[in-house]
Amino acid sequence: MKSLAKVLDSRPNYFAGEWLSVSKVKTFKDCPAKYRYNYIESLPRKTWDFHVFGHLAHSSLEFFHEFIKNGDKRLYGDIMVDAFDAAIKEHDKSTSSQREEIRQMMDEYLDLLSDLDKKNVLPNVIGVEDKFHVNIDDKVMLNGFIDKVQVDPDGMLHVVDYKTTKNKSFLAKDTLQLQTYAYVKCLQDPNLKKVRTSYVLLRHGFESMTKEYSRKQIMKIEKKFLDFAENIRNEKLWRPSTSKLCRFCDFLSHCKEGKAKIYRTTNVKYGECDWS
Questions:
Q1: Taking the C-alpha atoms of 5, 7, 11 and 12 in order, what is their torsion angle to the nearest 10 degrees?
Q2: Nearest 10 degrees: Cα torsion 247, 23, 239, 245
Q3: Which residues pair with 133 in a beta bridge?
Q4: CB neighbours of 210 closer than 8 A, spacing ≥ 6?
Q5: What are the backbone dihedrals phi and psi of residue 38, each rounded to the nearest 5 degrees, phi first?
Q6: Burial of residue 275, with CB atoms counted within 10 A of its CB: 0-12 exposed, 13-18 middle, 19 or more buried
Q7: What is the pLDDT of residues 100-113, one digit of tens each?
Q8: Structural domains present in the chain
Q9: Dihedral class, residue 245 (left if φ above 0, else alpha if ψ from -120 to 50, else beta)
Q10: What is the signed CA dihedral for 98, 100, 101, 107, rounded to 10 degrees?
């Protein structure tokens, strides 16, 4: 069946269907109550240090590649200095320790680019923070942005998402985000037969978790979003899905079930103590 989805030039002023993004879908799958708190009730969210860190790291790379795309011909090191400064101004709540870690991270990235340049295999970055709005059959408005879009030396289109997580194990099975980005590119270019996708792990020396998808595999994601939209529309109970991860929830203060879960899983040990 031919797709009826369309990539729009800009965000529409009105849409009668369901507005979805990868993050909204993941939130609903993880915990319907969290979805309700965030996207329906619009309750204030807690700001975590890792949010600030992630935004600063992403912005540093975004400014760096944006400067180059706009014709900056200076040495990469000089460009990165200005990119990092611009990112700090945008995220002025970052701490000195966060800035130092990201500064070292950006030095690693420059070393990586230098190595690729020596081998003559630098990719051609054609998109940074690439926003999209996709109308799927007038039922779903899929929106988001892609951290980086590049053409690799072998000519294959490559979509990249940056991750600042320290624990990379959970990403191996988390394919929704990258497949979604590949889907957008396939809609934009009907001649694409295959798309390369990667999570780039900024805290692991820019290690890449890479997988290639055929167009047939990629286009299957469309039905998943239609199903997600239907499930969200039909949800009535918005029950919390509690786990030990509730302690990191942005809305824990509003969720009695989550707070009860945290209190139950707190280990309290009684017995002798060594006071020496």
A1: -40
A2: -20
A3: 143
A4: 196, 197, 198
A5: -85, -55
A6: exposed
A7: 999 999 999 999 99
A8: 21-223 (3.90.320)
A9: alpha
A10: 140
34 burial type by CB count under 10 A (0-12 exposed, 13-18 middle, 19+ buried): buried
Tally Cβ neighbours within 10 Å of residue 129. 16
Contact 36, 241 (CB under 8 A): no
Pick the closest to residue 240 from 27, 64, 85 (CA basis).
27
Over pLDDT 90: what percentage of the chain?
Answer: 88
CB atoms within 10 A of CB 272: 5
Residue 160 phi, psi dihedral angles, 5° rounding: -130, 135
Q: Beta-carbon neighbour count of residue 268 at 10 Å?
A: 4
Distance CA 127, CA 133 (A): 15
* Cα 157 to Cα 139: distance, rounded to the nearest angstrom: 28
pTM of the model: 0.92
**pLDDT digit string, tens, across residues 197-211:** 999 999 999 999 999
Q: And the tokens for 209?
A: 């978790």
Q: How many residues does the chain have?
A: 276
Distance of CA 205 to the CA centre of its chain: 18
Place of tokens 């915990």: 31
Q: What SS3 class is residue 7?
A: strand
Task: Kindly report the backbone phi and psi dihedral angles of residue 214, in degrees, each rounded to the nearest multiple of 5, phi listed first.
Answer: -80, 160
Which tokens in the block code for residue 243? 């786990």
Contact 4, 225 (CB under 8 A): no
Assess contact for 109 and 122: CB atoms under 8 A.
Answer: no
